[in-house]
Amino acid sequence: MQLLHTMLRVGDMQRSIDFYTDVIGMDLLRTTERPDQGYTLAFVAFKGGNKNGEAELELTYNHGVSDYDLGSAYGHIALGVDDVAQTCERIRAAGGTITREAGPVKGGTTVIAFVEDPDGYKVELIEMGTHGS
Fold first, then answer.
1. The CATH number fitting domain 5-62, selected from 3.40.1410.10, 3.60.15.10, 1.10.3720.10, 3.10.180.10
2. Which residue of 15, 20, 40, 72 has the fewest CB atoms within a 10 Å radius of its CB?
3. Any catalytic annotation for residue 124?
């Protein structure tokens, strides 16, 4: 089995594509317009996505819906990075919002930070050299 993708509903497709590509650094793999069904899809990923064994994010815009109640069940997606502090600076410079600065996780030494996407979804950055400690 392989994790293929996670779907996030977004309120503005272009804004979300811009965030995940320009701010986070993912690649836009493909888009699909379904006007008769009332939705648009965009898939973003690192390193080519599924064809290279990497999970993808499916961004779904339901036509006419600009915001969602994220509820209390959703947590976050996590991205492994080489240097969390440096990644935060790059994201901040690109206009992203850091909601938790780089530092060790409570009770451990794994270095993490949190970013918020334009729809309020949390993205955790985990420093790979410290992961699991």
1. 3.10.180.10
2. 72
3. yes
